[in-house]
Design goal:
7 strands, single chain, Translation Initiation Factor IF3, 3 domains, two-stranded antiparallel ribbon, five-stranded mixed β-sheet, alpha/beta
């Protein structure tokens, strides 16, 4: 037991990863809200030259530590500022994660399990979607996986200076990527090692090199946290410590999560597609073999501890569960490879296994069929034809996968499922998503403001403040609270042009006072669309007041 991936395995995993992840990152606008926040922080970092204190609209903003911003800053410096340039960092991190999952699976089981674990992991729906977006989750998972692999090597092969030093550095980078998240998931694996590998405890945890170099994590991450505590102490306490950490544990629900135990089980019905139906059987198989196979006990512990912890968080966004999909991918790969090794065919499957395997493709076939229907019904829209074509690709690819499984072997069917997943993401990323650009409301508002404003104009924005609108603006704007709008407009220098973007809902609420002030403005555009974050229909008026001679 325990091996390594070949060079060709690594190349295959990298190629499949990029084929799945890249479509949908190019030519597709940033999505509110997280992508907008992070992209705007990077813009302001580059503009100000201050790479230590993240800022959003000029104020310190500590939604996440700075490592993602630093790497995206380098990417946009090299290739220019844009969607694919910013998303390149999470895409490469997700591709690296695929290889690291393969390495972990190979070391825990064998090379074939590692290869299939990587292929399964990168085709999990949640993994792919998260890897396409400008989020910190894929990046922190890179450091979690690196730490876990090093822990396994130190526990199974012995502690060395190199492994201990690298482990400390990796944990420090994880702290700079997403705060204490790495401590939860890498710590859960360390706990699993402690519980399962009892005979190795003294050799691993008793080695002085482990303790000597463990403090490197603080050396790597500590200086930035100290700097922030000194130079942005109020934001550090109120936003990072109180809001991002404490309130997610014991405060009110926020961040778009379910806020109830069992939420991640529901998320995973979709997040594990197309492999959802096969995962429970792999977990049950591992549970039955836990006494005979230490690796099964190890992975079950690593899966259960953080999963239970996350289920009881007050705020639990769907992407938080991402690291728990690693042991699921490895366990499923181990079960499938056992079937592959005997050349198992469909006729040789037991009835429960056959039923589970059928659901590898039926949810995708039904989903693809519904998308085709939606596209046909909305054929008058530009996106309708693209939806129909993309849905047809999904249906055709998964029908082909089903035929391979029934007529050839289970391995051929699973390989066809991977190919079908690649085809699905190619179709939706390259064909369907670009046709939705006319519906991107934040970008449409920004384009209208850019068209109305001259370089020297004062630009005011009121009532609509989704972060992506700021990313696409060509110039700084002043965000005005609705209650201050009339006073702000009245106080503006009448000799200088002013461009105002305001929601009609705020104008209606303010009534006659706003109408009197706006009488001097000429409406240049009226944009109506859907704020998909709040699921509200919104109309924004963009108006310009020309300066009058002094």
């Amino acid at each position: 037991m325990g091996s390594t991936l070949r060079g060709t395995d690594v190349l295959l995993l990298a190629a499949v990863s990029l084929a799945v992840l890249l479509p949908g990152t190019i030519g597709v606008s940033f999505v509110d809200r997280d992508e907008g926040w992070y992209a705007q922080v990077v813009r302001e970092m580059r503009a100000s030259g201050d790479w230590l204190v993240p800022r959003y609209l000029g104020r310190a903003w500590l939604g996440k530590p700075p490592l993602l911003y630093w790497l995206v800053g380098v990417s946009t410096w090299l290739f220019g500022f844009g969607e694919w340039q910013a998303r390149l960092v999470p895409v490469l991190a997700a591709a690296a994660n695929t290889v690291l999952v393969g390495i972990l699976g190979a070391r825990l089981f064998d090379r074939r399990v590692g290869l299939w674990a990587g292929l399964i992991f990168v085709t999990f729906g949640l993994v792919t979607v998260t890897g396409k977006l400008l989020l910190a989750d894929s990046l922190v998972l890179t450091w979690i996986l690196a730490a876990v692999i090093l822990q396994w090597r130190m526990a199974s092969e012995g502690v060395t200076h190199g492994r201990a030093i690298l482990h400390g550095v990796v944990v420090g980078l994880g702290l700079l990527a997403k705060g204490p998240v790495i401590l939860i998931f890498a710590g859960a694996f360390a706990l699993a090692l402690f519980v399962v590998l009892k005979e190795r405890r003294r050799a691993w945890l008793g080695d002085w090199r482990w303790w000597l170099w463990g403090g490197l994590a603080l050396v790597v991450a500590g200086p930035w946290y100290v700097h922030i505590a000194r130079h942005a102490s109020d934001t550090f306490v109120s936003q990072f410590l109180r809001y991002e950490l404490v309130s997610r544990l014991v405060g009110k629900r926020h961040g778009g999560g379910g806020g109830f135990p069992g939420f991640y089980l529901l998320v995973s019905l979709v997040g594990l597609l197309p492999w959802t139906a096969c995962v429970p059987g792999a977990v049950v198989r591992a549970f039955r073999r836990r006494r005979e196979e230490a690796v099964c006990r190890l992975l079950l512990w690593w899966l259960a501890v953080p999963w239970v912890f996350l289920e009881f968080l007050r705020s639990n966004p769907p992407n938080y569960i991402l690291p728990c999909y690693v042991p699921l991918a490895v366990l499923l790969a181990a079960e499938l490879v056992e079937r592959f090794s005997v050349g198992q065919t469909w006729a040789q499957l037991h009835r429960p296994a056959a039923r589970a395997m059928e659901f590898l493709w039926w949810p995708m076939l039904v989903g693809g069929g519904l998308i085709v229907l939606a596209g046909a019904v909305n054929g008058r829209h530009a996106w309708g034809l693209a939806a129909a074509v993309s849905g047809a690709v999904v249906v055709g690819a998964f029908i082909r996968a089903r035929e391979h499984a029934h007529r050839r072997t289970i391995q051929a069917g699973c390989a066809a499922v991977v190919a079908a997943a690649v085809a699905t993401h190619l179709a939706f990323g390259a064909v369907f998503l670009p046709t939705l650009e006319p519906l991107r409301f934040s970008r449409r508002v920004a384009v209208a403001i850019n068209a109305a404003a001259e370089p020297a104009d004062t630009v005011l924005l009121c009532g609509y403040k989704e972060p992506t609108v700021y990313v696409y603006l060509d110039r700084p704007v002043r965000t005005v609270h609705p209650e201050d709008l009339v006073q702000t407009l009245a106080s503006c220098d009448r000799t200088k042009p002013v461009v105002l973007a305001v929601t009609e809902a705020e104008l209606d609420r303010l009534g006659p006072p706003a109408s009197d002030v706006l009488a001097l403005f000429t409406t240049s555009d009226r944009i109506t669309g859907v704020n998909h974050v709040k699921l509200q229909r919104v109309t924004v008026r963009v108006a310009r007041r020309n300066g009058s001679p002094g």
